[in-house]
Specification:
This protein has about 120 residues and is mainly α. The protein has six helices and no strands. The protein has helices at about 5-35, 40, 45-70, 70-75, 80-95, 100-115.
Length: about 120
């Protein structure tokens, strides 16, 4: 009996991890950008270095994902960042999520589901 996870399911899970990483990096970049000080000072902060490290890690992981999934299959998942970033900014930055953002998020989720329909095997 083969207990290994199928490569496409693993690739989808890792693609989602990339989206979480990119979203987290965006929120950290916003935190850094909103802080006091000169730009040159900001790039030497722990939060900025963590954000860049997350981006590098997510990019390297994305290369693995693209090796195992067609771009037309993987890339629509990146649209989920348009949902995740507002949710993260709501909880971490006290930004508001309005009706337009909620409606847009629902439309994006429906679009990602339609584009991904039947592709996991």
């Amino acid at each position: 009996m083969d207990n290994r996870i199928p490569a496409s399911i693993l690739a989808y899970a890792l693609a989602f991890a990339c989206v979480i990483g990119i979203s987290t990096g965006q929120v950290l970049f916003k935190i850094v950008a909103s802080s006091n000080g000169l730009l040159i000072e900001k790039i030497f902060t722990v939060k900025f270095i963590i954000a860049i490290s997350i981006y590098i890690g997510a990019t390297l992981l994305w290369l693995w994902v693209l090796r195992h999934l067609p771009l037309m299959t993987a890339y629509p998942l990146m649209a989920l960042a348009f949902i995740i970033v507002p949710i993260m900014s709501f909880y971490t930055l006290d930004e508001n999520i309005g009706v337009k953002e909620m409606a847009g998020g629902i439309i994006i989720m429906i679009g990602v589901m339609i584009m991904s329909w039947g592709k996991i095997h």
